[in-house]
Amino acid sequence: MLRIAVPNKGSLSGPAADMLHEAGYQQRRESKELRIVDPENEVEFFYLRPRDIAIYVSSGRLDIGITGRDLLIDSGAGAEEILPLGFARSTFRFAAKPGTATGIADLKGRTVATSYEGIVAGHLADSGIDASVVHLDGAVETAIELGVAEVIADVVETGTSLRNAGLEVFGEPIMKSEAIVIRRTGADAGDAAEPKVQQFLRRLQGVLVARTYVMMDYDCRVEQLEKAVALTPGLESPTVSPLHNEGWVAVRAMVPAKEAQRIMDDLYAIGARAILTTAIHACRL
């Protein structure tokens, strides 16, 4: 069986379980379950702390895992990203008291508090900045107020918690993170698990595409077909079928979901009618 690590809690857990369910895999019914077997799909899921997943995967005990890019890099484990999943996006940045720093060069000789020591230390080293890094678990906003550090580095979403602590972000983002699928570094096509790994990735890619596109159907006159097809080119080419009424055709194509309403307006403007969109629940490209 393919052995897969899944986050057991936190912002990664729920969306990961939803994606796996959409991909046709069984998921646990209770949060206390640490392991389940999906015999029909020949997969065994292990529910682990998100911070530990890269370590387990790098050991080779588990074939692949779902975790955050930030957690993978911070761990320093021998695992690599093989598929971004598009959820749990975040930006990692420096913050300090207003007016005390404007860029990474201002960190020279200072102390930075963070929960992601591996990321910050690596970023500072790559930038040639000699600064101290203090590891703290949990909220790091109070580190400056309590004199533990002069700068913090943390995940920033809206920035509200930083502003409430009297801090502001500065400089360029350290990194951008999201949920990813990881695999042990060096795993290759010769591994026995390779066919199942590729099948798993195809399923998740199918979910990503299904979430990104909708299917659009409409009728248009033959003389407007080229204009209509230019608006809805599909992935390879749209499907065009003749209608019973002479001079009309039915067209079907996948279009980006976020552009669907605009495309419907444009199609209507050139004379297309009976324009419908339907959700895509699964696909293979």
Automatic annotation (TrEMBL):
Reaction(s) catalysed (UniProt annotation): 1-(5-phospho-beta-D-ribosyl)-ATP + diphosphate = 5-phospho-alpha-D-ribose 1-diphosphate + ATP
Alphabetic keyword roster: Amino-acid biosynthesis, ATP-binding, Cytoplasm, Glycosyltransferase, Histidine biosynthesis, Magnesium, Metal-binding, Nucleotide-binding, Transferase
Location, primary (coarse class): cytoplasm
Domain of life: Bacteria
GO molecular function term, any single one: ATP binding
GO cellular component: cytoplasm
E.C. number(s) listed in UniProt: 2.4.2.17
Signal peptide bounds: none
Localization per Swiss-Prot or TrEMBL: Cytoplasm
Activity regulation, free text: Feedback inhibited by histidine.
Residue stretches making up the ATP phosphoribosyltransferase catalytic domain: 49-206
GO biological process, one term: L-histidine biosynthetic process
Pathway assignment: Amino-acid biosynthesis; L-histidine biosynthesis; L-histidine from 5-phospho-alpha-D-ribose 1-diphosphate: step 1/9
Needed cofactors: Mg(2+)
PANTHER family per the UniProt record, alphabetical: ATP PHOSPHORIBOSYLTRANSFERASE, ATP PHOSPHORIBOSYLTRANSFERASE ATP-PRTASE
Recorded family membership: Belongs to the ATP phosphoribosyltransferase family. Long subfamily.
Role: Catalyzes the condensation of ATP and 5-phosphoribose 1-diphosphate to form N'-(5'-phosphoribosyl)-ATP (PR-ATP). Has a crucial role in the pathway because the rate of histidine biosynthesis seems to be controlled primarily by regulation of HisG enzymatic activity.
HAMAP family registered for this protein in UniProt: HisG_Long
Name of the protein this chain belongs to: ATP phosphoribosyltransferase
Gene name of this polypeptide: hisG
